[in-house]
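Renewal narrative, Specific Aim 1. Our central claim is that a sequence can be written position by position from structural information alone. The example that follows is taken directly from our test logs and has not been curated for this report. It begins with the structure tokens describing the chain, in the order in which they were read.
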């Protein structure tokens, strides 16, 4: 590639449009989960995420991220345990509720129990991962949470919720 072509490519990459970037990211289908924990006073806290991913099998680690201006950031930074509840197609309305800051009692939207570690576990999820709050890292405008999985379960007959191009969709064959 010529020096001029390289410079033009670099200049084009430097003109960054955040909205176009977000739009491009939306072309990558993701699963949807509700991450839950409790405040030190015992109040349940949960929010919808699509930033969940596996990180390591040995040790068993997962990761997810939370925007730094979230009112729940300090709660998740300080908790000992959290749960990742991978939702099914039947739980899309609950995911929308947990994503809405105007909904006061989000846990009224779902059936749930407390796990051994005291974190809320949502019923009928595709998969649930109870995690020790292992490490955190700053990453731009988000904080990356790494959890060490201490317990997990899966229900294979449920179809997972999928988010693609700004909306919920279903898996194809």
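The sequence written for that structure reads:
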């Amino acid at each position: 590639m010529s020096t001029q072509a390289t410079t033009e490519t670099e200049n084009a990459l430097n003109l960054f449009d955040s909205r176009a970037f977000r739009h491009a990211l939306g072309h990558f289908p993701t699963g949807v989960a509700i991450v839950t924990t409790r405040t030190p006073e015992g109040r349940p806290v949960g929010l919808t995420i699509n930033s969940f991913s596996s990180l390591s099998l040995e040790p068993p680690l997962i990761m997810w991220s939370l925007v730094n201006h979230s009112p729940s950031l300090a709660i998740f930074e300080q908790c000992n345990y959290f749960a990742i509840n991978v939702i099914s197609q039947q739980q899309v309305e609950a995911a929308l509720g947990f994503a809405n800051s105007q909904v006061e009692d989000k846990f009224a939207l779902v059936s749930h129990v407390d796990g051994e570690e005291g974190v809320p576990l949502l019923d009928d999820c595709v998969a649930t991962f109870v995690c020790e709050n292992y490490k955190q890292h700053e990453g731009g405008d988000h904080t990356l949470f790494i959890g060490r999985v201490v317990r997990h379960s899966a229900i294979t007959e449920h179809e997972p919720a999928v988010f693609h191009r700004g909306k919920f969709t279903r898996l194809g064959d």
